[in-house]
Specification:
Number of strands: 6
Radius of gyration: 34 Å
Largest sheet: 3 strands, antiparallel
Number of domains: 2
Strand order of the largest sheet: 1-2-3
Shape: elongated
């Protein structure tokens, strides 16, 4: 009987110790859960701010930005972050891709006078992607 009582006391001691350890672990888990939720919220806020600032891409400007105040205004054109001045022609076509082969694409054509050289001349910037890549224009 003494052995059974001693074993019972040991089991109860282990059980009490395990319950206390479980409570401590549970408190730590709750604390970590709150920290994780806070960290997730902070990460979400940071991503949202980056998106509002242009995706956080500070090292590479957009390929093309065209600003047009109204129908009769001269467009402001920025190509790779540089404003194009002395524009002669600005053309931009874009078509969504469909299930048809060679559908969709983009065509960009900017003609401008290059005043940086000794003898000014008309320079042309052209990009053709998708179905427009096969145009002969």
């Amino acid at each position: 009987m003494l052995i059974v009582t001693e074993m019972t006391n040991r089991v109860e001691g282990v059980t009490k110790r395990t319950e206390k350890e479980f409570e401590v672990l549970e408190k730590e888990a709750r604390k970590l859960g709150k920290q994780t939720k806070r960290s997730c919220n902070e990460a979400h806020d940071a991503l949202k701010t980056l998106a509002e600032l242009g995706g956080g891409r500070t090292d590479k400007p957009p390929l093309l930005v065209i600003e047009l105040e109204n129908e009769t205004a001269v467009p402001k054109v920025f190509y790779k972050g540089e404003e194009m001045t002395a524009k002669v022609h600005v053309g931009f076509d874009w078509e969504t891709r469909s299930c048809e082969p060679l559908s969709g694409g983009m065509k960009l054509n900017i003609e401008h006078v290059d005043k940086k050289v000794k003898c000014p001349n008309v320079r042309q910037i052209t990009h053709k992607v998708g179905k427009f890549a096969f145009d002969d224009e």
